[in-house]
Amino acid sequence: MAFSEIRTQRRITVREASGGDLFKGAVAIAAGTTLISCLTLDISTGLKGALLVVGCLLCLYGAKWVRKYLKDDKTYREYAPEWDDKHFIYDRFAKGLNAWYRQEELPEDADGDIAYFLKLQRERLRNKGLQMEKRVVPTKGTGYGTGKRSRKSLWYTTDMFFEQVSGTLAFHNANETVFEQQSEMTMYEIVAHTPDTTRGDQIRVTCPQCGAVNAALKLEEGCPYCGTRFRIRDLFPRVVNFFLSQFTRNYTQTTKRGLLTTNKG
Ligand SMILES: [Zn+2]
User: Fold this and answer.
1) Distance between CA atoms of 58 and 61, rounded to whole angstroms?
2) Which of 56-60, 114-118, 142-146 is modeled with the greatest confidence?
3) How far apart, in whole angstroms, are the C-alpha atoms of residue 107 and residue 99?
4) CA atoms within 13 A on the CB side of 133
5) Cis preceding linkage at 224, omega within 30
């Protein structure tokens, strides 16, 4: 089954300062100072006056563009991209994932499989005396936003969302940071939604209350394990999978060799 065409949701973002503005400013100032330098030539006073006026105007005009460039550049440098968790599941999940790695709650939109995997991952690292820190934010300045490809199955619709993100991955032991990497990645999230309610007996979901896997229909009647009742529509949308694919270029990494392998086993 092929995915349908890609749609994108643009992200409101701060753009990088335009090199064109700086160029315009520099050219105007260069032309202006050239005209003003003609005052040393042996020409009529009237012409000198005209050259001075035009030269000064060009310099002022150029300075305006240079100022605009410097202001935009400062804004861009100080701008820290953030997820917008108010209306969009992709952002909410990304933000929730960052929080999880800061030792907070599990992402609220994660399905049972993701919750299980995240807990397992934390457990394994703890046994090795390590703590993992992961943080992703929208990549600065692309403005491309989040791409989406939808696929309808018999049971529900699956959206694959993806966006370029800037990620930090670090591992800490009790004393120090043993590994740290910053890189540009694409983060994919697979979201299941709009279930076919007539197929509730065939859609398998994890109980949000106790984590047992059931047919969605069973959860409508009451979870066989914990008794909680859900409406099938309450069980969606859910992020059912996510992954990060890293570009091979454009990253920095610091490793303390050996430290990662001291607690093997
Ligand atoms: Zn349950």
Assistant:
1) 5
2) 56-60
3) 8
4) 13
5) no
What is this structure's pTM?
Answer: 0.78
If you measure from the C-alpha of residue 155 to the centroid of ligand 1, how many angstroms do you get, rounded to a whole number? Answer: 21
Q: Which of 244, 245, 1, 223 is nearest to 112 (CA)?
A: 223
The pLDDT of residue 43 is 86
Going from the Cα of 221 to the center of ligand 1, the distance in angstroms, rounded, reads 11
In percent, the amount of the chain with pLDDT more than 70 equals 89
* 199-245 residue pLDDT tens: 888 888 888 888 888 888 888 889 999 999 988 877 889 999 999 98
Q: Which amino acid is residue 41, in one-letter code?
A: L
- How far apart CA 110 and CA 122 sit, in angstroms, is 16
**Quick one: tokens of 164?**
């370029």
Displacement of CA 156 from its chain's centroid (Å): 26
- Kindly report, residue by residue over 150-185, the tens digit of the pLDDT: 999 888 899 999 999 999 999 999 999 999 999 999
CA–CA separation, 208 and 190 (whole Å): 18
Distance 206 CA to ligand 1 centre (A): 8
> Measured in angstroms, how far is the CA atom of residue 227 from the centroid of ligand 1?
6
* Residue 133 three-state SS: strand
Beta strand segments in 32-91, E: none
* Backbone region of residue 26 per phi and psi (left: phi > 0; alpha: psi in -120 to 50; beta: other values): alpha
Paired tokens of 1: 């089954």
